[in-house]
Design goal:
Blueprint: H1 13-17, E1 21-23, E2 28-30, H2 34-45, E3 48-53, H3 59-72, E4 78-82, H4 100-119, H5 121-129, E5 133-136, E6 149-153, H6 161-168, E7 176-181, H7 193-200, E8 207-212, H8 222-231
Parallel strand pairs: 3-7, 3-8, 4-5, 4-6, 6-7
Antiparallel strand pairs: 1-2
Helix pairs in contact: 3-4, 4-5, 6-7
């Protein structure tokens, strides 16, 4: 039997009425609407969670702060961020100087902007120095195992089928993997690893699929209307 995506209507009334949050002494992440409640519930209940939705609905924000709270609470030892190193829509910036960390740093800026805005750049840098926060490239995952780790693969719509497969099979003990992506903005088109996984992995116990709508917009609300117009076919 196929496993359907979670929707707001499937939530029990007791859950709909109850605020859902995760927090530490310094950071609190509160679900602002029904869809965000689903996200936090599904991440907590599953080993692997796929989160899709248009730009600005909080996919990366919710995942990043949830992972940070888990790290601070001692529920994991490492917070790992991964992003496909692909320039948007064919834009080429050429060779990037520096070591691996310096080369992938530009791709990780949105994630570290989120962390820095919530906990401060000094704490983020300290945790990077302590190897509690890591950034990795998909190119170097083979042979790795994620034990006691919270791992976010952001922009998952730009990962190939083999890359998604490689990422998912790195999961070890006491870990959670998140794959976040915007299927309307894939540089690989519809033949990407995110879409393939959503179809291929339906019904697997421990894997959840969530789709956020414009109702969860945390950026400028105008994005919802922009995306709506671009999804329409012009005459």
């Amino acid at each position: 039997m196929s496993r359907k995506k979670k929707t707001v209507s499937q939530l029990p009334e007791s859950i709909k009425k109850k605020p859902i949050f995760v927090s530490t002494s310094k950071v609190k992440l509160v679900a602002k609407n029904e869809e965000q409640k689903i996200v936090l519930r599904e991440i907590s209940r599953n080993s692997i969670t796929f989160i899709s939705g248009i730009a600005g609905v909080g996919k990366t924000y919710l995942s990043t702060i949830y992972g940070f709270v888990q790290l601070q609470q001692g529920n994991c030892d490492k917070l790992i961020f991964i992003r496909p190193c692909i320039e948007a829509y064919g834009e080429k910036i050429g060779y990037l100087p520096g070591d691996v960390d310096e080369k992938i740093a530009p791709y990780m800026m949105p994630i570290f902007d989120i962390l820095s805005s919530v906990v401060g750049i000094k704490q983020v840098n300290r945790m990077i120095e302590e190897k509690k926060i890591l950034t990795l490239s998909l190119a170097f995952l083979r042979g790795m195992t994620f034990d006691r780790s919270f791992v976010l693969l952001d922009e998952g719509q730009n990962a190939t089928k083999n890359q998604i497969r490689l990422f998912l099979t790195r999961i070890g003990r006491d870990s959670k993997l998140i794959v976040a992506g915007d299927l309307s903005q894939s540089d690989l088109g519809s033949d990407n690893g995110f879409v393939d996984a959503v179809v291929r992995l339906q019904g697997v116990e421990g894997i959840s699929f969530i789709e956020l709508s414009g109702e969860s917009m945390i950026r400028n609300p105008i994005i919802t209307e922009i995306e709506k117009r671009y999804s329409e076919t012009l005459d």
